UniProtKB/TrEMBL annotation:
This is Acyl transferase. It comes from the Bacteria. The chain crosses the membrane at residues 50-78. Coiled coil: none annotated. Keywords: Membrane, Transferase, Transmembrane, Transmembrane helix. One of its GO terms (molecular function) is transferase activity.
Amino acid sequence: MQRLLALIGPLPFIALAIAAAGLSLGAATGLFEEVFSPLLATFSSAWRYPLTGLALAASYFAYGLTLLMVAPLLNFLLGGRLQPYRGPAVSLTALRWYVHCTLTLVVRYSFLEFVTPSPFAQLYYRLMGMKIGRNVTINSTAIADPSLIEMADGVTIGGSASIMAHYAQGGYLVIAPVRLGAGATIGLRAIVMGGVEVGEKAKVLAGSFVLPNTRIPAGETWAGIPAQRVELERDAAAGNGAN
């Protein structure tokens, strides 16, 4: 079976991406043909061309908003909700991960940037299985494996930060949940890997890399590559004493 899966390679997932994008484009095409085209035909060419551009842009956003619904629906129908896993990257069990990744990436690279941060992006992540609390800010589209990511109330994800609930180890694919406690902050361009738990009100500073399975206690600040605890409070106290 592994040989068969290796032989067919990415073709089924390319087809899945085409299906998700194609169904969503169908909605955009219908909007353009049935609503905009008859209206555009009533204008002279001087107005028709710029108005056609506006109609095409509006149709593109109709595509994107439809895709935010279609991709999670296909993910649900094809069993793309993830479970923790450690094993070969090419296996029947790993197929769920490939389905989930495909439907995450097709949305990320074709539309998600336009609605991040916004309630539309959070709705999409929720439909893909992510657990999101109240007053959460997600200012990044570099979110992989959303169905195994949990963000409690008040979490802040900085711009271009990466959170992924998977990694490779010893020749195996490992899929492990990521949990961010209430009030946790992940800084600009920081990277958080699978199996990480960040405690309440803890901070990961900009550009840091949090290794897989790291546990960051509540209230601590971590930074660096790899990320380690930063003694900011002690340094501040020493500075006040010197004054």
